[in-house]
Amino acid sequence: MDTPRWLDEREDRAWRGYRRMRRLLDLELARELMQDAGLSEPDYDVLTDLSETPDQRVRLSELADRMLWSRSRLSHHISRMQQRGLVTREECATDGRGSVVALTPAGRQAVESAAAGHVAAVRRHLIDLLTAEEIAALGALTHRVVDHLAGRPTPEA
């Protein structure tokens, strides 16, 4: 067995700081989104995803892949959102086994009402705390890690 490459003090500080920041930021953004708009983060993710598609509908399986959720978990969440009138579920015209999730007018209104407050919270708790150079660095490093985890080649630094 290979000897682990332990994190040095600087790496450990960065790693622990990132984990703590991520937890606190996610918690605060979720709290404000629920308080201000009555939406959970998964609600908001589904609604924004649907609102950004040309016909405001997407296959359940594709949405599950985008959200990194199992189809079963997303299906249960969609059922709860349906009960609140935010989305509908339709049979897929090209595949009788699949289903399509569509944004309702109430869902569109909910995401439009939530968006400005959510963006303001993202600015207040992250973006406005950073310099232009730090924002560029954050963008570069997040895309590099995402590309790595998605199995896409990354350009050499």
What do these coordinates show?
It is built from 6 helices and 3 strands. The chain has helices at residues 9-37, 41-51, 60-67, 71-83, 105-125, 132-149; strands at residues 57-59, 87-92, 95-103. By secondary structure, the chain is mostly helical. The protein has one domain (14-149): Winged helix-like DNA-binding domain superfamily/Winged helix DNA-binding domain (Arc Repressor Mutant, subunit A). A hairpin with a 2-residue loop joins β2 and β3. Strands 1-3-2 form a 3-stranded antiparallel beta sheet. The model has no long low-confidence stretch (mean pLDDT 94). The two termini are 30 Å apart. The radius of gyration is 19 Å and the shape is globular.
